[in-house]
Give the backbone structure.
Amino acid sequence: MTERAPAGGTGAGPATAAPPDFAGALSAYAAGVTLVTIADGRDDIGTTVSAFCPVSLEPPLVLVSLLAASYPAELLGTGRGDEAGPDDDGSPADGGSPDNDRSPADRGSPAPSGSPADSADPDNDRSPADDGSPTDGGRPTDGAGPSGAAAGRFAVCLLAAGQRMLAGRFAAAGRPNARRMLAEVPHRRGALSGALIPDGGLAALECEVSRRIPAGDHLVLIARVLAVPYQAPSGDPLIRFRGRYPALG
């Protein structure tokens, strides 16, 4: 069963309003930026996420937090994983709830630290030409491929410092179309998730949701890592800090 929180709360106690300056305080937390991509059988969706962290090596688990009202959360909020049996920790798989990607810092603050909608980023207005024939590692693709979302599967790309423009494109609200956004970017389709994965990141993961936890205005996903499509031998990460992507050093 899904872990349900009381209406308006987080499951940790009575619902309370956020303290003053809470969003601003969170924006002071520097976080690596990732791109989460999903194939839902009809389209390819992607969203910029910095609310991501590793959870366990054995079994290999990661955590992703999505804005509950977003389309990515709706896609991954239900799926075959809910019927697949026990979680990796021995408890039943959680049922989903159609609860994008922004942290509390993204609301009411121009300098979010979560997985931000980056409409103020000048790169956000720059989108690649969409000629209707997206590339997949330099080759044309047909449609969106298998429905990874139906199986609770998705991909995560740990973005490199040089992929700031890509992060800005996918930080738009709504349903950022991964095929259009990646039309001019070398990429591949994950063999296990069906999701589009841009090349040039620090690493890429293919994942399957094993637990869904509604948490306030977010949906927290615990996911098993199924594969590592690639890992760069070197490179600097893309970091989000006070609403910007500062260079390291």
